[in-house]
Amino acid sequence: MRVQNFQEQQERMAFILLGNMSWTTIYIVGKTDFREDVRKRLEHSNQRYMPGFINSSSGEMTHDLYWLDGRTDLRAFKEAIGGKLVWKHRLRFYSTLEEFLKSQQEKEANELSEREREMIAEMQSVH
């Protein structure tokens, strides 16, 4: 009976501590699908984080969302992920929704349509 009370007390304390923590939202964007690699690295780190989810309208999942403990700075988070992964997937980090959405809009504006790609291929084949 005493052990059960202790466990309940521990669970209540954990809930209170987590509920009172300030969380910072970090959006990650990459050139290739980095989600599994980043998740594995974070699991083996001492970072306090919660994974999030962002629905992709284009079907390409080259972005992710994490909430970091408010005491964690972005540099420490990046170090936990590792420079090799940041470079491999060309990861970019955004701390506001506005910055993240702007990066997505710029990406869509810079992509060529299928017709534009066909026209480029035709021009290249002429030479």
Task: Describe what this molecule looks like in 3D.
It is a single chain. The protein is an alpha+beta fold and 127 residues long. 54% of the residues lie in helices and 16% in strands. It is built from six helices and four strands; from the N terminus they run αβαββααβαα. It has helices at 2-20, 35-43, 74-81, 83-88, 97-110, 114-126, and strands spanning 23-29, 49-51, 63-69, 92-94. The protein has a four-stranded antiparallel β-sheet with strand order 2-3-1-4. The model has no long low-confidence stretch (mean pLDDT 80).
The helix/strand series, from N terminus to C terminus, equals HEHEEHHEHH
Number of helices: 6
Helix-strand category: alpha+beta
- Rough shape? elongated
**How much of the polypeptide forms β-strand, as a percent range?**
15-25%
Structural Rg: 21 Å
On the 0-100 scale, what is the average pLDDT?
Answer: 80
What is the share of helical residues? 40-55%
Please report the distance between the alpha carbons of the first and last residues: 84 Å
